[in-house]
Each structure stands twice: as C-alpha cells, then as structure tokens.
Amino acid sequence: MIELHDKQFVPFIxxxxxxxxxxxxxxxxxxxxxxxxxxxxxxxxxxxxxVSDFMKKYTKPCExxxxxxxxxxxxxxxxxxxxxxxxxxxxxxxSVVVIEDIVDTGNTLVELKELFKAQNVKHFxxxxxxxxxxxxxxxxxxxxxxIRIPNKFIVGYGLDYDGLGRNLPEVYKLKE
Length: 176
Hints:
A six-stranded mixed beta sheet has the order 5-4-3-6-7-8, with helices on both faces. A four-stranded antiparallel beta sheet has the order 1-2-10-9. By secondary structure, the protein is of the alpha/beta class. The longest helix is centred in the N-terminal third of the chain and has 18 residues, at about 15-30. It has helices spanning about 15-30, 50-55, 105-120; strands at about 1-5, 5-15, 40-45, 65-75, 75-85, 95-105, 125-130, 145-150, 155, 170-175. Helix 1 packs across helix 2 (about 50-55). It has a single domain (about 15-150), classed as 3-Layer(aba) Sandwich (Rossmann fold). It starts with a strand and ends with a strand. Strand 1 (about 1-5) and strand 2 (about 5-15) form a beta hairpin.
C-alpha cells in the first residue's frame, strides 16, 4: 500500500501486465499502418510513460508529437477540457494516432477529434492503455485498448493524484 497526499492506494495492475498490454497495442497499430508513417500524438502529462514505452516497441517508421490538455482536479473530472499546448505541425493528409494513458469520460477525445478534423487528417485513431467502459459516455470509437478497467480512481505509470504518483512503474487503485 502507498499513501499520496491524504489517500491510500493498493496495488492494482503490475508492470508486467502493462508491458504486455502495450506490446499488444503496438502490434495492432503496426498491422494497421503497414505502408504508412503515422504521427503518434501523446496527451500530456499522463501519457508520457505510455508513449515512451510504446515508441520503444514500435519498429516501423513513425513520428511523435505531444499535446497538453487538462480536465482533472483532484480525483474527479471537471467536465471541461482546456487545451494548453497545441501541435505546431501540418497534419493534412497524415494518419494520426492519439496515445492516451486513460480514457474515462471521453471529454478530452471530443476536443481532440475536433482539433484533428480541422487539420484534415487522413485517419484519426485512438489508442489508450486504460479504458473505463462504465465511465465512457461518448460515441467516438476507441481503436486500440490495452486494459479495460472498472470505474475506479487509479494512479501510477503516468497517472497522478494532484501531481503525485506518476513515477510509479505499476498502477494502484484508491483503497476502499
């Protein structure tokens, strides 16, 4: 068990399970983009570990960029997404794969879909390491899912609780 700020968290997903899920996602993406050079877009801050490990396993030509958006305060989503740092590259006619650490409500995805639609991308795909189907309320297809999880608050492997816990190599859930 670990303690972050005023809350206790218990082990939930091991580093080995995370690695297996990322390897599976990489293979699916490589199969889908055999003759293309996709642009992977990581959503900061949470996705930095996922993107790093994903890129190390991806064996085909590709590019990577990042975008920073925010929608969380504490342990609950604020329902409003603010774009903080945008992309500065022309993506017209390119295939874009957004890499997320977690998809829960899907609010960030709505913003991203609009953003990339305006850029006239060829393909817009979404890859997420963690997916909370119970919390997801949007009709945007999630193309690549690493691990489906219940609607629990988690930290570790890039995910934080008010800034703490991102550096943990495995995932912990809030102790009930």
